[in-house]
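I am still learning, so can you show me any protein sequence you like together with the matching structure tokens, please?
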Amino acid sequence: MTAGPTTLLCIAGFEKGQEFIREAKRQGARVIFVTVSALEHADWPRESIDEFFHMPDLYNLDDVIKGVSYLARDRPIDRIVALDDFDVQTAAALREHMRLPGMGDTVARRFRDKLAMRSEAAGAGILVPDFTGIFNYDRLRAFMARVPPPWVLKPRGEAAAIGIRKLGHADELWPALDQLGDRQSFYVLERYVPGEVFHVDSLIVDGEPFFAEAHRYGRPPMDVVQQGGIFITRTVERGAADDTMLKAASREVIQALGLARGVTHMEFIKGHEDGRFYFLETAARVGGANIAEGIEAATGVNLWAEWAKLELAADGGRYTPPSPRQDYAGVIISLARQEHPDTSAYQDPEIAVRLDKTYHVGFVIASPHRDRVETLLDQYSRRFYDDFHAAMPQMQERPAADRY
């Protein structure tokens, strides 16, 4: 590492991570930022960015490696950070190419590839729904004979619930695979487990989560993405059995997948039939859909800012973990018929954040009392339907919660 301030190269193919950039600059880092041309004029914190670059896209890995290597000719680059899920493997490939510290290709794949993460977790004895890769058809038929439907067909490399299909019979699978053609092997088939979906968001140092928050979704994210409706998540009762088991399961996954330092967003489902928690997926990123804002409202911990501090302390620097509050928070987001919904009738003091996104309405609410958060989420979900005509079928855009 060169003398002087640490230089961070931040990559973002979606508009997110502004607070990471601000905190990195507050910590004295030099920030080089690379995004896609379509987001050149997005709301980036340019006052905290030393050099700003954009490319037509970030998916052509050869072009990205060439471009960043060109920048490095007269700019020392110490660390590379992917601010979005889709950039994780790109950043890992750059680290490998430039021999920089941080997550490399192998570990990054475990946090992007749904087949890889399931295989690693199952190999470590972690409970996952039965699954199979889409390779050999005889083995695929054997899986379907052994595991009764319904199943879910999931793209291995997408984020959240994007591209997932629920299948009720083998006759539905084969046409779906025919449509995929040569892309079949980029999917995984999994037993559908009905149940409640939870997420755990963590900060990690030396392979150990030192901060973790467990939350329960309202409707399963897949249903919200595919059918529309209202997205809700809220803090799990602190110290309860679900809270304890989720955090323990999250720690096991982090250690099995080998993440040494950083941030994770991880999902589990609690099966209706057996009450057990099954690992669904994870990502080495901050959760979307205002989840980070909800966590900050309940604990005072900003995941983006803490992640920036972790990155800058990775080379022998000192990192002091935060002292979180133990309040409760909830997030509620919905489509709205109005371009700019009027929420002035909602004046409860527990509203911590109001969503500012066209054709959407949403709040982050927080309280020291879990029952108060639950009551407001229930009231607002009913009022949203009356006031904003949520989830109108003629609207094509899905809620902001489509990327968790």
